[in-house]
Amino acid sequence: MSRIPSPAPRCLRTAAFSVAMGRAQGLTRGTMRHPQYRQPHRGVRAWNAAPSRPQFPEVEAMAKALDYLPRLRVGEAFSHTTALLLLGVPIQASPALHVVTAVTNGQARNAHVTGHRTRRPFRIVRTPAGLPCVQPIEALLQAALMLPFRELVVALDHLSLPGTRHARISVSTSREAVAAELRHARHPRIARMRAAHEVSRVGAESRMESLMHFELARMGLDELELQAEVFSTDGEWIGRFDAAHRERMKLLEYDGEQHRTDRDQYLRDAHRLELARRAGHEILRLHREDFRQDALPRTRIRMQEFLGLVPKPIPARLAAHFAEAYSPLPPLVPDKAIAEPGGRVELR
């Protein structure tokens, strides 16, 4: 049985570290081979046993990125879906790691990481945890080959929000800036990205709100006001609601987990809903389960019937994208696997 090693130095207990750093702190190679130290990557160690598997992809991506950070070289950054998850974009995507570097450098080579090289210049931004990422719109362009149409819309909704969460790392992406980037970008699926931008809306403040207006859009009914301010008949402010049809006085509201786990929030929302009903509004409350794939046909019918609207035809170019909205795309081929004769490599 292996002898239990002395505790790791305090400075090495909270994050993964390189073997060289461990040696500099007095750890021997034998000590760092003990089961008390995880080995997430070659040349990297982390104190304590492997953590339990995180429940959410963004949490797992964060854990994987922190483990890989000691191996990250100057000029490299987390990219593609990894960057989107680390920057708080609420997509459903694999937490597998993607790392990009400039074309003049060698791409990352690791069994647990997909490395990429690019000719496009990119600026590195850091998350609050200090993880270097490409900017959100660059990450989305990189990930366009990996994400279903629905996830592109969710991401664009998020990036178009004023003061969205990634603003805390000094990144600003207005809807106009995104549109300008898409107009000039050269990309294998740029038409698909532009279609997603056309469907996206300013005002969807959560993933579920994005899915709500996405399902309305596929019926040609995405005409509701998002984040609608509602007032009483006396002009007193009642509150904001996820979506509103002003003329018909119909409100759509997503009932999230916080409404059940936070008692104060629950009571505030109950009061707000009651005031809206007194003011003559009808309310349809939707839940996470309503947006499972098997429940979507029923959810669309419920929203349509509640609003009293008849579905409208949508352009054929959009209908084709909505048809593949839930079909996962094939995995992105690593750059090193698409070298052409003569040594030229197709770079994204």
Explain what this protein looks like in three dimensions.
- By secondary structure, this protein is of the alpha+beta class.
- The protein has three domains: 12-47, no CATH class; 57-204 and 329-338, no CATH class; 219-313, VSR Endonuclease (Endonuclease, Chain A, 3-Layer(aba) Sandwich).
- Helices cover 34% and strands 16% of the residues.
- The chain is built from 13 helices and twelve strands.
- A four-stranded mixed beta sheet has the order 9-10-11-12. A three-stranded antiparallel beta sheet has the order 1-3-2.
- The longest helix has 16 residues, at 263-278.
- It is globular and about 75 Å long.
- It comes from Leucobacter luti.
- This is DUF559 domain-containing protein.
- Please give the share of residues in helix: 25-40%
Rounded radius of gyration (Å):
24 Å
Judged by helices, strands and strand pairing, the structural class is alpha+beta
Kindly report how far apart the N and C termini lie: 49 Å
Strand content: 15-25%
Number of domains: 3
Q: Unreliable stretches, pLDDT < 50, 5 or more residues?
A: 164-172, 328-348
DSSP helical segment count: 13
For the largest beta-sheet, the strand count, sense and barrel status come to:
4 strands, mixed
What spatial form do the alpha-carbon principal axes imply? globular
**Helix and strand run:** EHHEEHEHEEEEHHHHHEEEHHEHH
Determine the mean pLDDT: 83
Neighbour order of strands in the largest sheet: 9-10-11-12
Give a count of the beta strands, DSSP E runs of length 2 or more: 12
